[in-house]
Predict the structure.
Amino acid sequence: MQDHQRWPERVRLFEVGPRDGLQHEPSTLPVATRLEFIRRLAEAGLRDIEIGSFVHPRWVPQMADTDDLVARIPSLTGVRLWALVPNLTGFARAVAAGATNLCFLVSASETHSRKNLNRPIAEAIAEVERLAEAAARRGAPWRGYVSVAFGCPYEGAVDFGAVLTLARRMLDLGARQVSLGDTTGMGNPRQVGEAARQALDEFGPDKLALHFHDTRGLGMTNAYVALEEGVNSFDTSAGGIGGCPYAPGAAGNLSTEDLVQLLRSLGVECAVDFDKLISVARWLDAEAKVRVHSRSHRYACSQATAGAH
Amino acid sequence: MQDHQRWPERVRLFEVGPRDGLQHEPSTLPVATRLEFIRRLAEAGLRDIEIGSFVHPRWVPQMADTDDLVARIPSLTGVRLWALVPNLTGFARAVAAGATNLCFLVSASETHSRKNLNRPIAEAIAEVERLAEAAARRGAPWRGYVSVAFGCPYEGAVDFGAVLTLARRMLDLGARQVSLGDTTGMGNPRQVGEAARQALDEFGPDKLALHFHDTRGLGMTNAYVALEEGVNSFDTSAGGIGGCPYAPGAAGNLSTEDLVQLLRSLGVECAVDFDKLISVARWLDAEAKVRVHSRSHRYACSQATAGAH
């Protein structure tokens, strides 16, 4: 017997669709469409939105015009806009474009770090040290990611103790929050429950976010288990867009609207308008031509066809 | 803090794809294709398979040739084949065709009962009494379903006490097991956790199965919560086929392969071959032209494209 009334009262959502979602899509959206996506997300009530990445366009062409995007973005009251910065070159671009809230990244497996960041973990951490220093000089808030925290597609199991060490290092360097990412959807509820307990013990709920992918259908259940443990901050992507880069066609990030559906059903507040989120997913699908993976969007579409009950 | 090591050691799967899956598909499969589907499910290790329904073909044309199907089905060692029988007319057909294991059905809401079974609940129960008597005379084992046990698309919330009373009545009448169905995917984890506790208190794990739909993306999480409470028997559908009848295009039953993925990740045995299940889903999609909804099938396809890691 368990007491299922122990969810947090309120959950914070960090929207990654315009970055982690779009960067894995086969097509590259025009800046105007990316801007419209962000505007609609803000209108749905999302207060933290990762809008793009200052990675080299050779690696991620989908994010090529992030400079232009940041320069053109309108003021969105009460919304924090975040940009991923993989290195000092990206940092210089971000500063030039006027980005204010930044995300820095390390990977929990050597192979993934070399393939994804083009450097071993130790060098990635050294780069984050330099980035943190540069951010501190400008007073720019930043957030830290640890990728493949729940399993690596190259190496398999990942030592979660090492994940916690990397996260602790980023917090010590000044990260406002660390987000532990199940980059390719390898995590399972048993593992996530235990990991969430350890991470909460170590950092407390304010400093911790979890980031799930629904690649194998376990993203929602992983989020639920983390909620049960007391995690109150999740990265999600409108429409569940952004399949795994090494698995074309696979389902992507945990969908914002599906998670909001879960939160509503549990009576957990998240200050996001579900109907507007469904509209965003519909817009993504119909106008932006980005494949939407969320169940609740598909259900809403079918209801519109069948008539409401 | 919770103890997440309390899942059952072993879970029994009751495969409903050839009935609850196919009956909601837009197209009607030829008997030979239905037979091949069943053969493949048995080969994947499923030991309880609901193969069809003796409902009037005017209502469910997809199940029209179930007589023929049952007559032609080969002997599958160790596999129990089940057929849904909605009334005495269906019972006579089932007996004539040679069906041995039967499923009888009631609905937990008056409106759904009238629309789905064409009679109020009291009359549906009276029919099950007659069916149970007829089954007892022939020594035919039967299983009871309670539909819309977690919410009704017409009436909204459903009194779970009334669900338990209906289930108890079916067990008293001789049902080997009762399956409580979230017919249109309205259940949420909070509700399911509480309901599972109550149902287990009332009937114990041997007599109880739960049947989830993934309409709103909560099917897997609902199953997980039930597992945590100690439920060890689930109805699932290969490929997650069988959308909600009143919501065309919506995701269908909880997918067998997705649930098996979850069970494997938790170390729970279910005696089903995951890779063969993926082959069944692939066959459904490619050969039988039935739309497959499962995440793990899509992931497996994408891995086949991208090369394994």
Notes: Chain A has a mean pLDDT of 92. The beta strands of chain A are 12-15, 48-53, 80-84, 101-107, 142-147, 178-181, 208-211, 233-236. Residues 121-138 of chain A form the longest helix (18 residues).
